[in-house]
Amino acid sequence: MTLAELQSTFSQHLLYQSVDLAELEITGPFSAEQLMGLYRNNFYIGLSEYLSDCFPAVVALVGEEFFAQLAKAYIIECPLSQANLELYGQGFAPFIKDCPQAESLEYLADIAALDWAFDRAKSVVSLQDFPFTQLAQVTAQQQQQISFRLQPETLLLCAPYPLLKIWLGAKSGELDALEMKSDERVVMYPNKHSGVLFCNLSSTEYQFLQQVQAHASLQSLSALPDFQDLLKHFISLHIINDFKFAGEA
Length: 249
Description:
Elements: H1 3-14, H2 32-54, H3 56-62, H4 64-77, H5 92-97, H6 108-123, H7 132-136, H8 140-143, E1 146-150, E2 155-159, H9 163-172, E3 184-191, E4 195-200, H10 203-213, H11 218-221, H12 227-236, E5 240-245
Helix pairs in contact: 2-4, 3-4, 3-6, 3-9, 6-9
């Protein structure tokens, strides 16, 4: 058996796929089934603990037992493809959204998205200030072709339920008096002083940041209500921190 074949057999067994363990030629006081079962158990425990650390509000809402089931299903459906765990949780919120077991919890995927955004925003170690000097050098003709950029790891969410209140309530354990009929628009972003900041947005603010996130040109943005005030506001909050010309990445 080649190394590639050995790795493939090993991975398939970890993901509960049918393989012939005799091909591994494991010898010793314990059988191949016992040793591989022990390794697989430790493998799932390790990844489940990692996911639990990344998604504390989800754990608080569904409980440890149900979360363990979600984590195991995610690990099987979205297996670890590299040794670095840093980004392994990025697919967890989309997974929950399509997971039949979580279908009755319509807000759970968005709560997971907030958990992940909070985790990622904390990981940002260097934040760029808005380049006012470079903007001042842009000609009037060029201005219409620029588009603004949000800080890396900024999250925008809109939900027909009080998303941020649910997330904060799950973290604090205070969910009893929550009114579920209200909707919310939320932005979460890295901050050099606080690590992470988040707040509710008005519908106008949300629409504006959506357009910025979609790299709308300054010409398009200028047609939105209160454009200049909103641009100044979000630059002052360091949510908008850069600009590019049309065609630039």
